[in-house]
Amino acid sequence: MRPAHRSFRILVLLVAVAAVLVTVDLRGDASVLRTAGAAVAGPAQQVIAAATPGDDRVRELEKRNAELAAALWAERAGRSARTQRDAVTAAHPGRTLVTARVVAVREHAVTIDAGSRDGIKEDMAVVTADGLVGRVIATGPGVSTVMLPTNPAAGVSVRMAGSRQIGSVRGADRDGLLRLRLLDADVELQPGQQVETLGSRGSRPYPPGIPVGTVVEVEPPEDQLTRTALVRPSVTFTTLDIVGVITGKDEEERRHAD
């Protein structure tokens, strides 16, 4: 077989590695990575052996290269997942989280690979280390659907960090921005102000104090009752990967609930 054909087969092998890594359990340990590597390395040996006639030393070298590539990809994917998971946990101290991976995307919603058997229920908040992703609107045994705050039909009650003024945000249908509406028409608004969740009764769906976004543009007054502005979300929804579902309250929230 010509070298170009052999290189193409090795490229196909590495794509297979990526597909295997997508299924790696985020809550596993090093044994998961070894299993992932083995799952690819076994078939890889057969592919390379069939594709490389002639010198046994060449076949052995290419088999070893494929094994090393599979192990390297598995290690990098596992390290990235652990880093993201640890960052989510550190950003929301005191809260009980279930980490999951985004596995599907649709308009104003994503699907994650954790569900009711992981303790996830409807109306639980979903976060990253940067802030609010949304809330769970449907669950199955192993997957859940999360609605994003970019949905123009669904609002999130918020509070301005600093001034403590309250209002709501919802999708603005403009460049992925949110539209903030404050209840006090006289409140001062300016770009750079931070917006966070107001908090819901029983912290469902939203606990208080989760970053929602930053004011980027103050709109001209529409009436004498409210002020509006455009907010850039804290989370980049187009790059979502590892998220955390808040399944339990922190100590302060439990005291207030009691």
Task: Please name the defining characteristics of this protein.
4 helices; 258 residues; 6-stranded antiparallel β-barrel; 2 domains; Thrombin, subunit H; 6-stranded antiparallel beta barrel; alpha+beta; elongated
Total separate domains: 2
Look up the CATH topology of the largest domain.
Answer: Thrombin, subunit H
The SSE string, one letter per element, is HHHEEEEEEEEEEEEH
Number of helices: 4
Side-by-side strand order of the widest sheet: 1-2-5-4-3-12
Strand content: 25-35%
Write a brief structural summary.
This protein has 258 residues and is α+β, with helices and mostly antiparallel strands. It is built from four helices and twelve strands; from the N terminus they run H-H-H-E-E-E-E-E-E-E-E-E-E-E-E-H.
Write a structural description:
The chain has 258 residues and is an alpha+beta fold. The protein has two domains: 3-91, no CATH class; 95-258, Thrombin, subunit H (Beta Barrel). 33% of the residues lie in helices and 28% in strands. It has four helices and twelve strands. The chain has a six-stranded antiparallel barrel with strand order 1-2-5-4-3-12. The protein has a six-stranded antiparallel barrel with strand order 6-7-8-11-10-9. Helix 1 packs antiparallel against helix 2 (30-51), helix 1 (3-22) runs parallel beside helix 3 and helix 2 (30-51) packs antiparallel against helix 3. The radius of gyration is 24 Å and the shape is elongated. It starts with a helix and ends with a helix. The model is unreliable at 18-36 (pLDDT under 50).
